[in-house]
Amino acid sequence: MSAAVRARALGLDVAVVDEQAAPGGQVWRGVERSTALGRSEALGPDYAAGARLAAAFRASGAKYLGDTRVWQVEPGFRVYTCHQNLVEILAAKTLVIATGAIERSAPFPGWTLPGVLTVGAAQILLKGCGQIPDVPIWIAGSGPLVLLYANQLLDVGGRVAGILSTAPPVNRRVALRHLGPALACWEDLLKGVRWVSRLRTSGVPVVRGVSEIEALGDSRVEAIRFRTLAGGERTVPTGMLLLHEGIVPDIQISLALGCRHEWDEAQQCFVPTVDEWGQTSIAGAFVAGDGGGIGGVRAACAGGEVAALGCAYTLGRLSLTAARQSADRLRRARARALAIRPFLDALYRPRRQVALPADEIVVCRCEEVTAGEIRAAARAGAGDPNQVKAFTRCGMGPCLGRICGITASSIIADAAGRLMTETGLFRVRPPLRPITLAQLASIEEREVAA
Amino acid sequence: MTSYDLDAVVIGGGLHGLSAALHIAREGRKVVVLERACVGRHASGASAAGVRTLGRAPQELALSLEAKHMWHAIGGLVGDDCGFHAHGQIRVAETEAEVAQLEQRLALTQSLGYRHEELIDRAELRRLVPALSHHCLAALLVRDDGAADPHRTLLAFRRSVQQVGAEIREGQGVDAIERQGDRWAVRAGAARYVAPFVVNAAGAWAGRIAVMVGDDIPIGTKASMMIVTERVGHVISPVLGAVGRLFSFKQTDKGTLLIGGGRQGTFDLDRESGTVNLLELAIAARTACELFPAVGDIRIARVWAGLEAKTSDLVPVIGPSPRAAGVIHVFGFSGHGFQLVPVTGAVVADFVVRGRTDRPVGALTAERLMAHRAAA
Fold first, then answer.
1. What is the pLDDT of residue B200?
2. Rounded to an integer, what distance in angstroms lies between the CA atom of residue B7 and that of residue A27?
3. Which of A255, A320, A406, B10 is least surrounded by CB atoms within 10 angstroms?
4. A437, A444, A445 member nearest B300 (Cβ)
C-alpha cells in the first residue's frame, strides 16, 4: 500500500494485485472491516495506522485487484494473474514485489497430525473470522508472534494452557549484546515486555529452553512430549498445539524472475540481493517489506515508499536528485525501525533442530519425504536441491517446495558440507499458485496496466 | 593438473551418457562420465519418459524395436523396472483426413515388414480410453509400447553405472579436447582425462563438444514444455498422442497427468536454461481440455521446459565421427530419445570394444548432417 500510494503521488499508473480480498496484508488483515465495525481501537494504535494507510490507498487512484493470485511473473514484466476463473496478464515496466513473509517450516514428530497448526494460521482464523479455539491451547516455538497471538487470544477470551519456548537459552546472552542499538525502538521493546507480563499475570506457564517436541496421538493430537532444559522428559495433554519458529521472506516471485539471492545468516533465510532502492539484480524489479528480509511493518512502509521513488526514477519521472532527497528521510525512518532487528534475530534465532530435523521426520508433507531420505539423496548425488527433488520427489507436490524448501536446502547443505548460498533452493517452476488446466487454457494476452 | 588414464570418456550425464558408460564398463573397460551440472539436469530429467515405437521414422525404427525388447527386460539391465509399464501408445485421428494419414502410416510400416502397429476403430478406442472425447474417429496403436518414470530410470542407470565401477563426476564441465598422440585429452577444470575414445552425449550442447574435436555438425535446440498436474483418480492407461496436434497425454504411477507433445519454450544455451512460454503452453492445455472434457478443473502442479538437441531430419546422430578417430557422437534425439536409451549405449559399446556395430544405425551418421551443410 505504501509503495502504491507514493507511486500514485508521483503520477505513476499503478495496479496492485492482492491475494486477499481487501487491503491490509497480514499485519492489517481486515483492517477496513474492523474499522467500520468500530473494532480497530480495541486492536490498538498500530491497527489505526493501518486504517489510515488503507484509506489513503483507496483514495490514491491505484487500481486494486483483490482476491487475485499471481501465478507467474516474467522479466519485462508480465504478471500472470487469476481472479476467480479469469486469467489475465498484466504488463508493467517496473514491479514492486511486496509479498511479505511466510512462517518458517519447522517439522517435528507428529507435526502433520490434525490439531497441530501454526500460530500464523490460528491468527488468520482469529483475525479473519473471529475463530477462537474451544480448548486450552499449547503454543510451542519462539518469536514475537507467539507472544502477540497469546495476548490477542487472551483478549478475546481464549485459553492458553501454556507456552513451550524453544529459543535456546544462549540466545538471551547473545541478544543482550545487541540491546543498546535496539533501545532506539523502545516502543517495540516495551510492547514485548507488556506481552510477557500480561502472560505472567494471567498465569500462563512458560517453559523455557524446550527441545525435542513431539505431538502424540492416533488420529489427532492428544499430548505433547518434550525435553526440558534440565534434560528431563515431560508430557502434557492437549487438544491443540500451535507451533511457530519465526517467519522468512516469501521469495517465490523474485526466485521465479531469476533475481540473485543470498543466505542471511542472522535471519536464517534466503533474501534477494537489493540496492539502496530495494531494486533486485533484475533492473526494474524492486522488493519492499518482509519479502526482502524480515523488518516489520514500519520498515516495510518506508521501504515501500523508497521502492516507489526508485520506480519513478527508473521510469524517468523523477530526477535522481529529487528521488534521493525524498528517500533520505524514508531511509532514516527505515534504519530506525530496523535497529531492533539484530536484537530480535539473536533472541529468537531458531534452534538447530528446526533446520536439521532427525532422519525419521517427514519434511515434505505433500510427497511424504523424510529428512533421512533427503540426507541420503544429498550424499549419493551432487548435493543439489533440484537433483534431490528428482531423486526423492521432495518439493514436487502441490506446495511446490514453498514450505519445505529451506529445510530441504539446510539438510542438503549440511550433508554435502556446503554453504547455504552455494546450495540454493529448489528451482521455482510456474505456476507459483495452483491454477487449473482450464484456466491455463483460457489465457490470452490483454494489457491492463502500464 | 591431475591426469587420469582411461579407455573412454563420456561427456554428458544424461541417460544416453549413462547408458553408454554402463555398456562400456560392462565390457570391462575403464570409463568416466563427465557431467557439467548434475546427472539428468536437462532433457533426461525433464522427459515425459514415453517408451514409444509408434510412429517412429524408418531410419530409427529397427533400433527402436530392439530398445523395446530391452525395456521389457529393463530390470536385467539396471536392476530396477524403472517404473516401466507397457500400457500401450495411441495416436488418435480426429478427422477423416487424419484417418487416411494413419492408414498410410500403417501401409508404410507393413511394407517395411513390421507388424507392431495396428489400426483400431472408434469402438475399440472408446474401450481403451473411455475418457477420450467422442469426436475421435480411429487410432494407431502399439499395445506393448508404454512409458516409464524418468527419475527412477535416471536413478537406476546412475546406480548401475556406479556399481560396475565407472565413475560419474558431476560439476565437471569440459573446457577443451585435444589430440594427444592416438588418444584424446579431455580437460575439465583442473583435471585431464586421457582416453582413446570420447563419447559425445552432451545433449543440447553436443554441437559445442563436436566443434572441440573439429566436427562442424549443424544442430538446433528444442525446449519442449511439459505440464504435470496434481494427483487424480484413474483417467487413462496408455500414452495418447494426436495426429493433427503437438500433444501427448499420460497418467503416471503417482496419478499425476503429464501433458507434453513438443510445444516449445525458449532457451539460452549459455545460461543453461529453458523458459516456459505460457501462451504457447496454453495451447497444450486447451488441447487436453478438448480431447479429455473432464480434466479442466484439475490443478496444474508444475510446468517446465527441457533442453536438448534437434537435427534437421529429427532423427539422432549415433555413430563415430567421420574425421576425429575415436570420437562417438550420441545426440540430437529431437524430442524422442528416452525410448532409445538402453540400446544407444550398446551401440556405443560396440564401437568402443569392437570398432564396429551390427546394429541398424547406418542412417544415423553424423556425415548426413555435415553433407547438408556442405551442400548449403
1. 98
2. 64
3. A320
4. A437
